[in-house]
Design a protein that fits this description.
With 254 residues, the protein is of the alpha/beta class. 43% of the residues lie in helices and 17% in strands.
Length: 254
């Protein structure tokens, strides 16, 4: 990696795992572009936290599931790189933004499948594609999957299928971008105490206890468990880890 600024773009960086990753990466010297879907104030609050650590952060609105929004967003990223970061390229991309859905297979609708595909597969594919021209050789891409792509729980088939697809995308990206020295990996969290899926893991004591009982470390994951792992994977010292799926789940259902 060169001495130019290290700039990470994190989709869904305004909350949960994305926010934690942004703050951990700021501690390691990364500036950030974070995206948010609707909560602009929340995103600007994260930018202020990053600024308090001595780094630069910019919040941009993006609906990752809206195909028509990808190209204009990429243009906005180019503008921000030119005006706020001296024309430096992106050095890292974390495809993190997502939405959950709970429905048994028999009750899953076509509309639910389409929405999940747009957010978890089509959006990250097209966004990554659109940002490659402003991406640094030797950079890092990290796609966020889920432990549910490894183990199975009733009601999450559609969501887990999409995460399986992003894991395959990771391996192909690693092959196709290897000539540019770009490292691509998947990070798969287990159940984490955030507002994801309506906050069920965080706020429902029965669900929390059930997950903790299936986890060797005896508790549910916290955002900083994952944010710290993301930051470690993007560290220069870990450049030989490539095309891999790394699960950060406390060993649940091992």
């Amino acid at each position: 990696m060169s001495t130019q600024p290290r700039i990470v773009l994190i989709t869904g960086g305004n909350r949960g795992l994305g926010r934690s990753a942004a703050l951990h990466l700021a501690d390691r010297g990364f500036d950030a572009i974070i995206t948010y879907r609707g909560n602009e104030a929340e995103a600007h609050a994260v930018c202020a936290e990053i600024a308090a650590k001595g780094r630069t952060a910019v919040a941009l609105q993006l609906e990752i599931g809206d195909t028509a929004a990808i190209a204009p967003f990429a243009d906005r990223v180019r503008e921000v790189l030119a005006t706020r970061f001296g024309g430096a390229p992106l050095t890292a991309l974390i495809n993190n933004a997502g939405a959950g859905a709970y429905a048994p297979i028999a009750q899953t609708s076509a509309a639910q499948l389409d929405a999940l595909f747009a957010v978890h597969v089509k959006g990250p594919f097209l966004l990554t594609q659109a940002l490659l021209p402003v991406f640094a050789d030797g950079g890092r891409i990290l796609n966020v999957s889920s432990g549910l792509a490894r183990f199975s729980m009733t009601g999450y088939a559609a969501y887990a299928m999409m995460k399986g697809a992003i894991e395959v995308f990771t391996r192909y990206l690693a092959v196709e971008l290897g000539a540019r020295g770009i490292v691509v990996n998947t990070l798969a969290p287990g159940a984490i105490e955030t507002d994801f899926g309506g906050g069920v893991v965080r706020d429902n004591p029965d669900v929390n206890r059930m997950i903790a009982s299936a986890t060797p470390l005896g508790r549910v994951g916290r955002p900083d468990d994952v944010g710290g792992a993301i930051a470690a994977l993007l560290d220069d010292a870990n450049g030989w880890i490539n095309g891999q799926r790394i699960e950060v789940s406390g060993g649940i259902n091992g």
